[in-house]
Amino acid sequence: MKLKLYNTLTRKVEEFKPQVGKKVSFYACGPTVYDFAHIGNFRTYIFEDVLRRTLETAGYDVNFVMNITDVDDKIIHGAAEKGEDIGTFAAKYEEAFFEDLEKLNIKKADCYPRATENVEEIVKLIEKLLERGVAYKAADGIYFDISKFPDYGKLSRLKERELKTGARILSDQYDKENPGDFALWKFKKDDEPSWKASFGEGRPGWHIECSAMSMKYLGETIDIHAGGVDLIFPHHENEIAQSESVTGKKFVNFWLESEHLLSLGQKMSKSLNNFFTLGDLLSKGFDPQAFRYLVLTAHWQKQLNFIWESLEAAQNAISNLKFKISNFQLHKEAKPFAGYLGKFEDAISDNLNTPVALAVVWEMIQSDLLDDIKKSTILEMDKVLGLGLDKVDQAKLPKGAQKLIDEREKARKNSDYKKADGLRQELEKMGIEIEDTPEGPKWRLKS
Ligand SMILES: [Zn+2]
User: pLDDT tens-digit profile of 418-431?
Assistant: First the structure.
């Protein structure tokens, strides 16, 4: 499979090639565990999961690392409000995050490093930035001097915008239109959690953790770095500046950032209070896979407007798909059908075109292939889609139904069609449809 992906760095769809053989280093920015993640966040995690599954299906050996931000302004404020230490406060949201990942059938990362467990690496990286003269000490912390990194803005194409050098930004989430020197380290204030460092006791800023952990777990140059589109600037831009200033090497070959999930026409976010959690969806009776299906109906580079009607449509589609699969009558092991599988792979390898891939799924399901072949083909496709179709149980006949089917078959063979018809009607009342095929009668549960 020749995989083509859109790379934010070059603004082009390029053929994906890892640095070393079939090995892929893949870093994704993980959650800040100060609250329950919302479904806008999960859109990004589903996208990353599909990318990872695609790579694995194509035979790559993927090392997938996702960080957990367990210290930042919001966590400190949240913990203080509850009168808890940040560890206790963050742990319950981290646990909820993992539960949601499992419900959405998102594969576990190979490693989930936490910021607080990597402070030593973060401090070392800041020391190097100070040594190289690209960072400096101010009254409230250590800052990165963006005027010292000529490439600053190359990912987000910031060059054309005005760079306000000298302006200092302490907050982790700063005004996207007014870039400035950003905090690498924030000096200890009051009773905030802090760590000792040669340049003064304090805590890391948000951006530095991803540079430190990406390089620690995956190396100085990695193949893929992903996240949501809102991370391009400043977060990913700052990661490049921090990492490349120290190594002098390219930090990431492929940058992939998935588009927003919109709600009421705006980006779904905590600050706008227009968000839903996975729990909100489940409490309304939706299958978590209905949300995953909904995400797959849109291309990852297109905004997706979340409305309940589309989630209902996705629920109908996934229920219908699962029902059809449960009703497949299997006789023998079969190989996936190469024609449809090839079409499916063409769609996925073309910059992960999941809407087209889903259309191929339905085309295959509605074709006249044998059930055995349909089943093995859909399971192969689902290795990429991750809709959990391998967990669908085969439908079982209600008690006594098999006896009626056998009796009907006997009657048919004896040309007693009146009796056979009566038995068919009896089976229909039980919700069973019978189809006579050259291999014998096939039954299906009626939807
Ligand atoms: Zn990050």
Answer: 999 999 999 999 99
